[in-house]
């Protein structure tokens, strides 16, 4: 037997709309400094939002990781929050060329990037992850993505990562190893992103593959070959990191996402 349709009283609909409006208004008035707690929780206290100004809705501040500082400014669309989605606009003010810009939409099982343009010190990533890598790497990482949709198993889009003036301090070597400019061209395909890794300049030739998936996390498989065959110190350091392959050494890293 079919049940008769239930009529929702108009007063309840009005009340629901008022509650939603009040909730969004409360977010709009909340100070931007409240975002620091969320940033710190996501990075296990390794990154903080300092000098926050404005509101959660429309604010600015400094992402601080150790001694490194990255200026950020943002706007948040209100109504998507009711669908449990975050639509974040990173904005670049006049004279703030170092701050990231672009649009990020985060849903329950999806992430969409639009017109992302950011330059971040390489050491910032190590500090944010709470590892000693921050003391061992140098240079700046450029991230560009005009359109990238992470919606496993139907990802699509692409992104380009360029590590400029890259350097790494290898085990057993006092001086940093210069790697030149390293480029990773990522393309989304099904349930993962992957792409080739290469470099120009530096003491090592870098060739390999990078991949990212929800199940396997971030994976790097590279062959590192000294450009000078007589650099025994560098060869010794590489032998501690990987297995011989041709004139170089194969190294692999995996970082889980969870």
Q: What is the spatial order of strands in the main beta sheet? A: 1-2-3-4-5-6-7-8-9-10-11-12-14-13
The mean pLDDT is: 82
Cα separation of the termini = 48 Å
Total domains = 2
Order of helices and strands: HHEEEEEEHEEEEEEHEE
SS content category: alpha+beta
Report the helical percentage. 10-25%
Shape: globular
Radius of gyration: 23 Å
Please tell me about this protein's structure.
This protein is of the alpha+beta class and 258 residues long. It folds into 2 domains: 31-116, no CATH class; 136-258. 17% of the residues lie in helices and 49% in strands. The protein has helices at residues 10-29, 35-42, 122-129, 232-239, and strands spanning 48-54, 58-65, 68-76, 86-90, 101-106, 111-121, 137-150, 156-168, 177-189, 192-200, 204-213, 217-226, 243-245, 248-255. It has a 14-stranded antiparallel β-sheet, covered by helices on one side. A hairpin with a 3-residue loop joins strand 10 and strand 11. 21% of the residues are buried.
Question: In terms of topology, how is this protein built?
Answer:
Blueprint: H1 10-29, H2 35-42, E1 48-54, E2 58-65, E3 68-76, E4 86-90, E5 101-106, E6 111-121, H3 122-129, E7 137-150, E8 156-168, E9 177-189, E10 192-200, E11 204-213, E12 217-226, H4 232-239, E13 243-245, E14 248-255
Antiparallel strand pairs: 1-2, 2-3, 3-4, 4-5, 5-6, 6-7, 7-8, 8-9, 9-10, 10-11, 11-12, 12-14, 13-14
